[in-house]
TrEMBL record:
<protein>
    <submittedName>
        <fullName>Homoserine O-acetyltransferase</fullName>
    </submittedName>
</protein>
<keyword id="KW-0808">Transferase</keyword>
<dbReference type="InterPro" id="IPR029058">
    <property type="entry name" value="AB_hydrolase_fold"/>
</dbReference>
<dbReference type="GO" id="GO:0009001">
    <property type="term" value="F:serine O-acetyltransferase activity"/>
</dbReference>
<dbReference type="InterPro" id="IPR008220">
    <property type="entry name" value="HAT_MetX-like"/>
</dbReference>
<dbReference type="InterPro" id="IPR000073">
    <property type="entry name" value="AB_hydrolase_1"/>
</dbReference>
<dbReference type="GO" id="GO:0009092">
    <property type="term" value="P:homoserine metabolic process"/>
</dbReference>
<dbReference type="GO" id="GO:0005739">
    <property type="term" value="C:mitochondrion"/>
</dbReference>
<dbReference type="GO" id="GO:0009086">
    <property type="term" value="P:methionine biosynthetic process"/>
</dbReference>
<feature type="compositionally biased region" description="Polar residues">
    <location>
        <begin position="74"/>
        <end position="90"/>
    </location>
</feature>
<dbReference type="GO" id="GO:0006535">
    <property type="term" value="P:cysteine biosynthetic process from serine"/>
</dbReference>
<dbReference type="GO" id="GO:0004414">
    <property type="term" value="F:homoserine O-acetyltransferase activity"/>
</dbReference>
<comment type="similarity">
    <text>Belongs to the AB hydrolase superfamily. MetX family.</text>
</comment>
<feature type="region of interest" description="Disordered">
    <location>
        <begin position="68"/>
        <end position="90"/>
    </location>
</feature>
<dbReference type="Pfam" id="PF00561">
    <property type="entry name" value="Abhydrolase_1"/>
</dbReference>
<feature type="domain" description="AB hydrolase-1">
    <location>
        <begin position="125"/>
        <end position="483"/>
    </location>
</feature>
Length: 516
């Protein structure tokens, strides 16, 4: 009763706190100054002389606004931005339609690729090198493009991918923006960029497109399928989809199915990117791209690519300039490092490609149940290949809506969890400890010699996920599985170890490929 009276008294009492000043919005550009900018609310600085403290400077925001102005000015003077590219490459142009796992159809498609070494007379020495999420086909320098590639020290005479022995092929994945067909490509049906009219695709779709290229090159069977990160997913998918067309498989810092943590991190990146108003639901190609969203997404990604112990040694708690007072913009060395990573990337890769390719990673699951589900979808959608026309469907590409209520465990998911727990308990009682049965069944097609490598300091694809792959393959009956795991005494570079560690990662690949 006393509490109720107190609340009634407070509700009748006027609050003595001073009312804050109303924020002043930046004026939108006029026709004479057509620079597109967000309306940003901020306090007027006209009365700073009467305030207790001066207004803080925000050079990091100034940089974003200046980049927007530069992009707008460049477009006004030179036209649209040039296509994303990393230099000269070869193109395979497929004119036959490609059916994608979730029902989308590409009437025609292009696969950008580069090669190193020489294909032998029997065409039996080819290695297909798969890329990570945002890499191009430029894994190594070429006469046409002398710029160092992303695996420059791993490819060449006497190196892990020995070009004296092997013919190495690397593609830009379907959905990418470095020459292969993706959201920034022109839709032949209407002559416009696909944007978010591009269909959802999967890792398996990328692999099928690559094998169309191999067919065109006359390569019936690969000596090896090699990949790291998302490339490690693709290399395993090759063994599942085309078991008779590959001899060896190498999967580095990858997985056989995406797990919740990595899905969550990629989801966060996509949400940050799509929240940038310049994204415009994917239709930004004739205006300012969502460079701020891309910058922030890359900063989040960079956190997952390296490791805390490395950063402890490399940056510690050092500030960029201890002589200056603390700031809300990048201040600690680690902050400036992340800021630089975002700045460097934000205009180098197509934002829509980041959305589509990262989603394909999330959808990756080589378990038997998912494979059967996708096979049924492909069968039901097969007639689409016979009815490919230039007409644009008016049906929404996705009818999923956000739930009216916050997420709660649904009965079906609870039942599924109960079933999994029951199976795990049954296995435990029977003395069977190992990977999930569904994954074991899904990997039975991979009977090839297989090298799986993981890194203990990797937080994006933790080493237990690579152990899961190796254990599942062995449980499926593959007796030629080699597993190597590198601890923090070997590498503190986390997920990026596959790009940096020539001695251990490169050495393992070299030894495995040399085995008879």
């Amino acid at each position: 009763m006393q509490r109720r009276r107190l609340l009634q008294t407070l509700s009748r009492t006027q609050c003595p706190l001073r009312q804050p000043r109303q924020p002043q919005a930046l004026e939108l550009p006029t026709a004479a100054a057509p620079i597109q900018r967000l309306t940003i609310a901020r306090f007027s600085s006209r009365n700073d002389g009467n305030s207790s403290n001066p207004q803080m400077a925000f050079p990091c925001l100034d940089k974003v606004e200046n980049r927007t102005r530069e992009i707008q000015s460049r477009r006004s003077n030179q036209g649209p931005e040039p296509s994303y590219t990393t230099g000269a490459h070869e193109n395979f142009n497929a004119t036959t339609p490609l059916l994608l796992d979730y029902g989308g159809v590409l009437r025609e498609f292009t696969v950008a690729y580069e090669t190193w070494g020489k294909l032998n007379d029997t065409k039996s020495n080819a290695i297909l090198l798969h890329t990570g999420l945002s890499a191009s086909s430029h894994a190594h320098s070429t006469p046409a493009n002398p710029r160092p590639g992303w695996w420059e020290k791993f490819i060449g005479p006497g190196l892990p991918l020995d070009t004296d022995k092997f013919f190495v092929i690397c593609t830009n994945v379907l959905g990418g923006c470095y020459g292969s067909t993706g959201p920034s490509s022109i839709d032949p049906a209407n002559g416009e960029r696909y944007a978010t009219r591009f269909p959802i695709l999967t890792i398996n779709d990328m692999v099928r497109a690559q094998f169309h290229l191999l067919d065109n090159l006359g390569i019936e069977k690969l000596y090896a399928s090699v990949g790291s990160s998302m490339g490690g997913m693709q290399s395993l998918a090759v063994g599942v989809i085309f078991p008779d067309r590959v001899q060896k498989i190498v999967s580095i810092s990858g997985c056989a199915r995406s797990h919740p943590y990595s899905i969550a991190m990629r989801h966060t990146q996509r949400q940050v990117l799509m929240a940038d108003s310049n994204w415009n639901r994917g239709f930004y190609y004739d205006s300012v791209p969502p460079h701020l969203g891309m910058k922030l997404a890359r900063e989040i990604a960079t956190v997952t690519y390296r490791s805390g112990p490395e950063w402890e040694q490399r940056f510690g708690r050092q500030r960029a300039d201890p002589s200056k007072p603390p700031a809300l913009c990048p201040d600690f060395l680690i902050e400036t490092y992340l800021d630089h990573a975002g700045e460097k990337f934000c205009l180098e890769y197509d934002p829509n490609s980041l959305l589509y390719v990262s989603k394909a990673m999330d959808l990756f699951d080589l378990g038997r149940e998912n494979q059967e589900h996708i096979n049924l979808l492909r069968i039901s959608n097969a007639p689409k290949l016979e009815n490919v026309t230039g007409e644009t469907s008016t049906e929404p590409a996705c009818s999923l809506t956000l739930p009216a209520c916050p997420y709660e465990e649904q009965p079906s998911s609870l039942e599924e969890n109960d079933l999994r727990q029951a199976e795990a308990q049954e296995d435990l009682l029977a003395g069977r400890r190992g990977p999930p049965r569904d994954l074991v069944e899904g990997l039975r097609n991979i009977w090839h010699p297989t090298l799986v490598m993981g890194v203990t300091s990797d937080i994006l694809f933790p080493s237990w996920q690579q152990r899961e792959v190796a254990d599942a393959l062995r449980a499926a009956g593959n007796q030629r599985v080699e597993y190597r795991e590198f601890g923090e005494d070997v590498s503190l570079f986390g997920h990026d170890t596959f790009l940096l560690d020539l001695k251990h990662i490169g050495g393992g690949v070299r030894e495995f490929l040399a085995e008879e």
